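@channel anyone free to eyeball this complex?
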Amino acid sequence: MLEYALKRLIWGLAVVIVVAFAVFCLIRVIPGDPARLIAAGGATPEMIQSIRQSLGLDKPILVQFAGYLSQVVRGNLGTSIFRSAGGSAHTGMHEFLTPTEETGVQQYAKAEVLGLIIERVPYTLLLTGLAMVFVVVISFSLGILAVLKKDTIWDKLVLFIAICAQSLPNFWLGIVFILLLSVKLKLLPTMGYQGPAYAIIPAFVLSLSLIPLWLRIIRLSLADVLSANFITGLRARGIPDRLILFKHALRSIAIPLVTVFGVHLGYLLGGAIIVEFVFNYPGLGLLTIISMLQRDFPIVQGVVLLFASVFVLINIAVDIIYGFIDPRVSLE
Amino acid sequence: MPKLQSGGEHVRGQAAPNPQEPRVEMQQGGSTPEPMAKSTFWERILRDKSAMTGTVILAVYAFVILFAPLIAPHDPYAIDVDNIFRPPFFMRGGTMTYPLGTDELGRDLLSRLMFGMRLSVFMSTCVVALIVAFGTVVGLLAAYYGKLVNVLLMRVTDIQLSFPVVVLAICVLVYTTPTVPAVITVLAIGNWPVYARVARSLGLTEKAKDYVKAAQALGASGARVIFKYILRNIAASLLIVCILDLGAMVIWEAVLGFIGLSVLPPTPTLGNIMGAGWDYMVNAWWIATLPGIIVFFLLFGLSLLGEGIAGASGVRGSMQVKTVV
Amino acid sequence: MSSETILDVRNLKTYYATDAGMRKVVDGFSFQVKKGRVLGLAGPGGSGKTTVALSVMRLIAPPGKIISGEIFFKGRDLLKLPERELAKLRGLEISIVFQDASSYMDPLYVIGDQLMETIQAHSGATKEEARKRGIELLTRVGIPDAVDRMKNFPHQFSGGMQQRALIAMAIANNPTLLILDDPTRSLDVTIQAQVIQMLVHLREQTEVAILLISSNVALMSQFADDIVIIFGGRCIEMGPKNTVLGSPHHPYTRSLLEAIPVLEGERLNRLKVLPESRGLWEGNGCVWYSSCQYRMGRCALEVPQLAEVGEGHYSACFLGAHEPHKIAT
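replying in thread with the prediction:
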């Protein structure tokens, strides 16, 4: 078990590094020179060049990446290009000039990427955590309902709900919610964040993109399991129905669900980005989008690194959990 | 607590007329594909009301998409400064000249939606075609030949699934001009791993079946086995996934368009109409909202059809196929 | 010596709805099982044996349905009981052991858990008490190292042990009626012998009524007291074992017994092949009509009822009790 985990971790590490490198290259190779952006209009080529030098952008890619990695290992994910440590984003080339230049302008300390990320993580965790809670609660209740009342109107209703939920772009639903609740009805403030309650609607909107899939899996797997012989065996021994459902049937469908969860995490994180954008929710997603639009490389890299690592870890965890749930599985 | 029932034979068909009062009972899942003795695929699907509803919806969409240039009331690019932010006809201030209202430049929303749908669907179809072709081939190869190809595929897809497609898309499209081919490429790159995995797992299931061994025993070459036999048998499952994915790609395009990373205005796509409309939510909510409804019905139709095909061909759980990692 | 009748099934009809029409899997079947005695239910594959067992326990699920009949268990008609009451009976008073034991146990829980679950479901036993009883049961059915084995998963048991574990679960609460559905089918011969040995023991120790379902005639002759033959969902012959096996009356029974390969004499050359019953008997007459060498015109039009052809020996055939017939030697 342990050596399996170790093997997977090493693979995982490789994966993370490859991902980080890919993003690294992508950002640097594609046109959109941050140095030029920072310099804005009226900058001489020499100034732009010195900015590039100070950002390390003139060295070959691999060297840059190696340098980046060595910093990461030391816990330094770099500093933002645009955001200042004080919390507001400043742009302008004077911040990059060394003190010997005569600028007469104060230097602003740049925000640490790691710090920015850590600051935002709790918000995104709250959002995604709450969304998962919604997903589990809603899909299980509806799924069990659908199976128990198979082929009745309830089953069809649940299926209908699932189809509707997957036919809606979830950000669109977010828009509609905002429109209805804030703009038209002026009921609830929905954008931004001033307390955990602000996470509820975004979390709900986020959960809607995952619910249809979970619902179907639960419904299908549960129906399958319930027609299995061992359920007949249990009933033949007089085990009460409630016990059969919750102790035996649900445990049997845990496996496909756990698999899906691993895959869903990716969707969840991605969906969170959009939802945060729509709702102006101050989590990692919003940070990512805005940083991308600003070409603030270090932040983007840091976030991607984080995402990749989390995803890989979750997948490994999923595999290990498999081993616990299903005794027939041997981990090779 | 409603009653549990289980066991019994896996026999398909309709239940006999029940003389006793209908108790609410849980019924067994009949999900193993069995040869349907009495009816053919076409008979079954034509009988399926919801599948037919879906087809009708899709037919309407197909019609609009194909004939947009002929039936759109206005030129989607035509600016009419006197009529900006006209609401849809069912609201106060709306007219039938601009049935669904106008946007910030006075362009007719209905026409823009028609053309937008055209472009969005076109792009989605291209994406799906690409990823199905590529992903299926790779997936089947991995399933059939196993070993190195398999491991390689799994690792590569692991890497690609490692982070959300959104980030990938953002990465690429922020820095290049988002032309139609660019958007298609990005979406294709972002989504093919899922297909490869799906095809692989379907292929693995098939590989274990007897007819494959029989074909091999008869001396059929690998490629022949894959393409002639296996492909044919998984075609139904793949078709269902394709149909549903078409809808998913439309949504993807909408997402990208919304954040400004799809084809740029003035070319209308469902996504960028919503994106532009986002800024005007307060006073012209229809711009951002109506496209969503259009998308909804398109997907709804696709889902109904997909489910119908799944039911009629005896393939189990369309959605379940997509989730195999 | 008349024993108390534990199970009295009258005119049971269980049908299944299929794409090809309504399948009359059990079509008017009656029998009785008495306390302390073993009733063997024999018949070919597809004749409805398992369906009979499931019907008695009321475990038939759609598309199957019990259409009509009465199933009296200790005087109460099971078909009229609410589900709640039935659940109380199952596993406690009536137990069933299925063939293919492994698929009837939850693969995700250890044997001990499942055994204890059955015990605790019907008694107020504590976990510890249930555990002790579980160990006792496993030992009783002949599973060695019972204490360790309690912690094994079903897939860690061999086929024979799985079957025995299932039997342990079935007898855990000392049922009054035990139904065995082809308990030895998937076992090899040596294990078969052991399991039968165990069942014989059980029968001696308790006064359990046993319904033994099997297509294995040899098993019947060893273990059953009375035999009832089912074909095409109907009872075609019933009586004490020795009578039915020794002087079978119904043409099908005779074919069945003739088909047993005999190692001496002229019959060595060819194995007789018996048709499987498909249950889709469209015709009006006897289920055995199309294969019967004694058939008469009447047989295609009327369903022969069970008629007495000897002491306690009944046969559903229009051939009278004294019609000349040959028995395979």
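from a first look: The two ends of chain C are 32 Å apart (CA to CA).
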